Amino acid sequence: MLTKGLTTVGLLLVSNVFMTLAWYAHLKLQSAKLISSWPLYTVILFSWGIALFEYSFMVPANRIGFVGNGGPFTLVQLKIIQEVITLFVFTVFSLVAFQNQALGWNHLAAFACMVGAVFFVFIK
């Protein structure tokens, strides 16, 4: 069970890196003047291309981790884990790629609440 759990979390982490890039990398590329002349439909297709990799990791993560398939996590647990990973990956991405974005106490408090959600969803 531990192996399936760690595999699931690892796949969710990789998946969320791709999803964060699909959602937000075009903003960084636009601000760097690399794709500022691209029409919106091209940016959407670019993002969909990245999101394909996200699905290539997210779907197996959910299949491996779901208790109905012999994994250790319920559907709600999988979703809460995914949301916390998303928040973590987004925070790292925004601090690295958009260095003018500040991380305030309220952001840390919100992150603590999400970690609390993980705690509560695992209570039997």
Automatic annotation (TrEMBL):
Taxonomy, superkingdom: Bacteria
UniProt organism field: Sutterella megalosphaeroides
InterPro entries tied to this protein: DUF486
The keyword Membrane appears for this protein: yes
Transmembrane segments: 6-26, 38-60, 80-98, 105-123
The protein, known as: Membrane protein
Keywords noted in UniProt: Membrane, Transmembrane, Transmembrane helix
